[in-house]
Design goal:
The protein is α/β, with parallel strands linked by helices and about 550 residues long. The chain folds into two domains: about 400 residues, ANL, N-terminal domain (Rossmann fold, 3-Layer(aba) Sandwich), CATH 3.40.50; about 100 residues, GMP Synthetase, Chain A, domain 3, CATH 3.30.300.30. The chain is about 30% helix and about 25% strand. The strands form four sheets. A 13-stranded mixed beta sheet has the order 2-1-11-10-12-13-14-15-16-20-19-18-17, sandwiched between helices. It has a seven-stranded mixed beta sheet with strand order 7-6-5-3-4-8-9, sandwiched between helices. Helix 1 packs parallel to helix 9 and helix 2 packs across helix 3. The radius of gyration is 24 Å and the shape is globular. Bound molecules: adenosine monophosphate (AMP). Adenosine monophosphate (AMP) binds next to strand 14, strand 19 and strand 20. It holds the Pfam family AMP-binding_C. Belongs to the ATP-dependent AMP-binding enzyme family. This is Fatty-acid--CoA ligase. Keywords: Fatty acid metabolism, Ligase, Lipid metabolism.
Length: about 550
């Protein structure tokens, strides 16, 4: 950690470490009766309050102590968004141990690799994942016991899982008399592994300080804008970068929390939105596709839903328009990554934009947005030199800030910073107003005749076509130009469109040489563990593809 010089005159404010336990203490003391509602794995709806959550988190903290978990030890979870998972967020980190959320959509071998790499001491899991845990438990070298997050009567009669315990039984045996310990705010609090589309996943190890600062900053009006009057449903999973920090930022503000559990289909999510008067939500574009299709097909409206943050991959402008124009839901396009806790930018307007024509405002909102306070960014060329903020010049995007990684857990990948900046692997432009727009992930950019073609723009145009459900663009071999764009399309159910019509659809919308050389139709695109389209899988699938222009 970098040391900074001390002034001869130090400030005289209280020294109080920024700790995650302070968030649940605050939520209990000041918003104690505000609700947390969860659709359980069991299928029913569970309700309780921040006060109840705090009480059960203290019981669980005692239980962890009884199991021998000490400060700095890693404790893993494999769970959906729900109240027990939230209790663990506070019990584990609050007691000084490290909350390690594992993505259950990963392959069992990858899960075992991650659990061994993290040296997890215990592993909590939702009953949905019983077969999965059975598949990898024997390969976990450091895990002393597995805890099923269920009532006693739901425990399996027999199981191959070694040292299997019951969550509710553990809680029952422990008192709620517990004082959250005080320790250095730079202590590790939680651990998330990157999705690892290439190579082994690497761990981002957050601290209490970084988490609390990220929670403050992400709740601000031009970021998530969450308040005590909101009802918040995080669709983004608690195993994907801590549900973008919502399990911390929502209790901090006192808003109602609504957890969807495993039911992420359009119908279940819509019903919960309506029943629990949800005002705000957050998720990746692929989940909203399911919700919008269900709402559209059934001619429904949202009664209370007003605002959503969409990020994780580029939000197609067509989706933003549907939310805004058809349903009156404001979309905030946000960008970040596991290595950034995750929030870096959010797209909202400023007062000097208010008189602009609608389409100009829309164009600003379609960008990934403005840095939130705490995050600094710049774009550089391959020579490392900073590039101008003109909204046109694109370069490698670098970031720095107190909730951005300085090295991976166990120093995997070695020194990752470039002169103190973290290279994101994204290619972007920044305009004079400071709005950043991702052109592409550097690995996905199409290199055509020495020039770069950003695939996000090409996909956004295709997805604005009424017959297109989803589109992905990849570069395929071309003998003259090295690579040319191939558009891979999933049609909307029952809709028809031809290759020629889609290519014509690009006319006037983009530089002519960016137009895809060919279009191919598929039934579905491969989706990864965090809900993103897997471009490397599509490239693999089409590696022998020959364009008609070759
Ligand atoms: P992850 O760490 O899995 O959250 O992935 C982070 C990566 O997702 C970023 O580096 C971007 O490539 C991509 N990403 C996140 N948000 C956006 C967005 N709004 N638009 C485009 N790409 C995004």
């Amino acid at each position: 950690m970098t040391e900074f010089p001390k002034s001869p005159l130090m400030g005289q404010m209280m020294s109080q470490p920024l700790l995650i336990s302070s968030i649940i203490k605050h939520a209990d003391r000041y918003y104690g009766s505000n609700e947390i509602v969860s659709r359980r794995v069991e299928g029913d709806i569970h309700r309780y309050t921040y006060r109840d959550c705090h009480k059960r988190s203290r019981q669980m903290a005692n239980a962890l102590g009884g199991l021998g978990v000490k400060i700095g030890d890693r404790v893993a979870t494999l769970a959906w968004n729900g109240y027990r998972h939230l209790e663990l967020y506070y019990a584990i980190s609050g007691s000084g141990a490290v909350m390690h959320t594992i993505n259950p959509r990963l392959h069992p071998e990858q899960i075992a690799y991650i659990a061994n790499h993290a040296e997890d001491m215990y592993l909590f899991f939702d009953m949905t994942f019983l077969p999965l845990v059975e598949a990898f438990a024997a390969h976990c070298k450091t895990v002393k016991g597995f805890i099923a997050m269920c009532d006693k009567d739901r425990m399996p009669a027999e199981s191959k899982i070694p040292n299997l315990m019951c969550y509710e039984e553990l809680l029952e045996k422990n008192s709620d008399q517990y004082e959250w310990p005080l320790f250095d705010e730079n202590s590790a609090s939680s651990l998330c592994y990157t999705s690892g589309t290439t190579g082994n996943p690497k761990g981002a190890l957050y601290s209490h300080r970084s988490t609390v600062l990220h929670s403050y900053a992400s709740a601000m009006p031009d970021a998530l804008n969450v308040s005590a009057r909101d009802s918040v449903l995080p669709v983004v999973p608690m195993f994907h970068v801590n549900a973008w920090g919502l399990p911390y930022s929502v209790p901090l503000t006192g808003a109602k929390l609504v957890f969807p559990g495993p039911a992420l289909d359009g119908k279940s999510v819509y019903e919960l939105f309506e029943q629990e008067k949800v005002t705000f939500s957050a998720g990746v574009p692929t989940v909203w596709l399911g919700l919008l299709t269900y709402v559209g097909q059934n001619n429904l409206k949202f009664s209370t839903f007003k605002r959503t943050v969409i990020g994780g991959s580029a939000c197609p402008p067509a989706m933003m328009k549907t939310f805004r124009q058809q349903y009156g839901v404001e979309v905030v396009h946000a960008w970040g990554m596991t290595e950034m806790s995750p929030l870096g930018t959010a797209g909202t307007l400023q007062s000097h934009h208010m008189d602009l024509p609608e389409e100009k405002k829309q164009a600003i909102l379609e960008k990934q947005g403005h840095a939130i306070y705490g995050v600094d960014m710049k774009i550089v060329g391959d020579d490392g030199k900073e590039l101008p903020w003109d909204g046109k010049t694109y370069g490698n995007l670098l970031v720095k800030g107190p909730w951005i990684i300085s090295s991976y857990f166990k120093n995997e990948a070695g020194d990752v910073l470039q002169d103190g900046w973290f290279p994101t692997g994204d290619v972007a432009t920044i305009d004079a107003d400071g709005y950043m727009q991702i052109t592409d992930r550097s690995k996905d950019v199409i290199k055509s005749g020495g020039e770069w073609i950003g695939t996000i723009d090409l996909e956004n145009i295709a997805m604005a076509h009424p017959a297109v459900q989803q589109a992905a663009c990849i570069g395929v071999f071309h003998p003259k130009w090295d690579e040319r764009p191939l558009l891979v399309v999933v049609k909307k159910p029952g809709a028809e469109v031809t290759k020629e019509e889609l290519i014509k659809f690009y006319e006037g919308k983009i530089a002519k040489w960016w137009t895809p050389d060919d279009v191919t139709f598929v039934d579905a695109l491969p989706i990864g563990a965090t809900g993103k389209v897997l471009k490397n899988r599509i490239r693999e699938q089409f590696k022998e593809y020959r364009l008609p222009t070759t």
